[in-house]
Amino acid sequence: MVGSLIVDPYLKERDRLIEAEQKLQFGHDIVLEGDEIKANECLMRAKTAELDHAFQHPEDFLPAQNFLRARKEIEQSTVFRILRRMPKGGLFHAHGLAILSVDKLLRYTHLPNLWICRSGFAFLFSRARPPPPLLSHSCDDWVPIEERRRAEPNLDQEIKRHLMLSSSRNDDINHVWKDFNKLFPAVGGLAIYK
Fold it and tell me: How sure is the predictor about 136, in pLDDT bands with cuts at 50, 70 and 90?
């Protein structure tokens, strides 16, 4: 009797908090139907199996690993394969500038009217020499990319290196985040054209 006087209010309050938290989740108000229910059950079974395995073997938990090193394993996971088959790949969040592959961006560097900063890796499409400095770029010395390519035979490899996060260094989240944020000015000049 005494136990239920203490436990029952606790359980009711716990249930209330869980319900309130669930209402904060993305898609909490979506009602699944038919095949959606079956697909969700399949996904949740795979997700639960991966989480159960992670509790027994935390070192295998892919979301906790360096993405650049774990990417191939993530792509082979059951959950990822299910998400990949769904409309939009189950995508909830992506940086628009990070969607293009590095190889696609590198191909853009061979398009006409592309300027590159003489001393860095900022890019800008323009029919005429860009005036220094533009608001979105700190570069004050633009050259046609063909000119810099002639002077630097390995420029494509350098550009590619500057458009990618390296998996060989900086496991520290602060370094990774700093490097990640450096990518967007370079990518933006290639992917955004007004």
Answer: low
Say if CB 122 and CB 107 are below 8 A apart.
Answer: no
Distant-in-sequence, close-in-space partners of 86: CB < 8 Å, separation ≥ 6: 39
Q: How far apart are CA 122 and CA 32, in angstroms?
A: 46
State how far the Cα of 89 lies from the Cα of 85, in Å rounded to an integer: 6
DSSP secondary structure, 98-136, as one string: GSS-HHHHHHHTTSTTEEEETTS--EEE-SSPPPSSPTT
Q: Count CA atoms within 13 Å of residue 116 on its CB side.
A: 26
Confidence band, pLDDT 50/70/90 cuts, at residue 77: very high
Q: How far apart are CA 122 and CA 118, in angstroms?
A: 9
Q: Please indicate, yes or no, if residue 80 is contained in any of the structural domains.
A: yes
Specify whether 39 is located in the same domain as 70.
Answer: yes
Tally Cβ neighbours within 10 Å of residue 109: 19
Residues 165, 107: one domain?
Answer: yes
What are the tens digits of pLDDT across the range 9-66? 999 999 999 999 988 887 788 888 999 899 999 999 999 999 999 999 988 888 877 7
